[in-house]
Amino acid sequence: MRIAFHAPLKAPDWPVPSGDRTIARAIVASLQAVGHEVIVACRLRTFDGKGDRARQEALRERGERLARGLVERYRGPGVRRPDLWLTYHLYHKAPDHVGPLVCRELGLPYVVIEASHSPRQSEGPWREGNGLVAAALLQAALVVSLNRRDPPAIAALGVDAGRMRLLAVPADLNAFARAADERARHRAVIAARHGLAAEEPRLITAAMMRAGDKVASYQLLAEALDLLGERAWRLLVAGDGAARGEMEDMFVRHGRRVVFLGALGREALAEYLSAADLFVWPAINEAIGMAILEAQAAGLAAVVGDAGDVRSVCEDGVTARVVPIRDARAFARAVRDYLDAPGVLVGDGEAARERALRVHSLEAAGRQLDGWLREVVPDRRGEKR
């Protein structure tokens, strides 16, 4: 079928890398993998992070103009209209001003993947956005959640359970799985490149370097490393951003034990992950953690903070150690336990890879989405297909 796709927070071709953009791309790819045609119908970014009512109103007016233009276009002669509209990631700071209007005018099914609604936002600077999200969810023929936190609040709006589904986060993990197959080669190359000793356990983390929760996570990681004492380890840090100088200052006391790699492309990141021993990330206020999933696909166990829906990608005690959030001592203890039991570390890494590829692959997500979408798209005879 032909699917019109819109991501109000970040379009799939948004220039700045992020977990949100990665998931948007994965959803598109998973649908394409099972034969659907996906067109990015709109690239309007509706995000307002400051509660600026004037900006919100301007974005709403622009969105409505774009919607009317799309309706006119799709009604034009010789134009094949979409079979449905799919919007990815709705919340009060980034509502959808386009999809609901287009679907009402053309009688198309409106589908949402990942949305959150908070009664606390019914007052304050984002109340209109929150109300628009509620209206969109009530209009939706299907609401697919990527984590277990959102469905209760969505159901409380009056969205019945028959229109709600839960999907494991889809991810393109092929590059990371391939790198794991050449782990020995990557370990040797990267050891020579950075002067890493074979007997030193290699920890690795990967995250953007920006103010707020990322800085807090890096700070806690530095504190946890302090608690490892004289134990041997090296930390590889993949990532870059405006706060990089601040990040480097946090780790300066660890000297050459910490190697900053800068921003890495997908293939390079896969190689570094596969060459490491353990992924570490405190995950403060992390929603899901795509980097964690990529590390697991590369064959790494992980120590992560128990934030958001991290447990949807980490099985505590099987593929990872999930520790209390903001607890540097618990984090250090989990890292130490893994380093003291190399057999367990390897076994959990193998389990992590198997689970990531089985549960989170594009093909698995595509098959599940395909079945759900065919339930809401009427065929030419007015039946369901």
Explain how this protein is built.
By secondary structure, the chain is of the alpha/beta class. Helix content is 44%, strand content 15%. The strands form 2 sheets. The chain has a 6-stranded parallel β-sheet, with helices on both faces. A 6-stranded parallel β-sheet has the order 9-8-7-10-11-12, sandwiched between helices. Helix 2 runs parallel beside helix 3 (99-106), helix 6 packs across helix 10 and helix 11 (290-297) crosses helix 13. The longest helix is centred in the N-terminal third of the chain and has 22 residues, at 53-74. It is elongated. The N and C termini lie close together (11 Å). The model is unreliable at 380-385 (pLDDT under 50).
Features:
disordered C terminus; elongated; six-stranded parallel sheet; 14 helices; alpha/beta; 385 residues
Average pLDDT, to the nearest integer? 93
Order of helices and strands: EHEHEHEHEHEHHEHEHEHEHEEHHH
| Poorly predicted residue ranges | 380-385
Distance between the termini: 11 Å
Strand content: 15-25%
Quickly count the helices. Answer: 14
State the secondary-structure class. Answer: alpha/beta
The biggest sheet, with number of strands, parallel, antiparallel or mixed sense and barrel status, is: 6 strands, parallel
- What's the β-strand tally? 12
Specify the helix fraction band. 40-55%
In angstroms, what is the radius of gyration? 22 Å
Strand order of the largest sheet: 2-1-3-4-5-6
Global outline: elongated
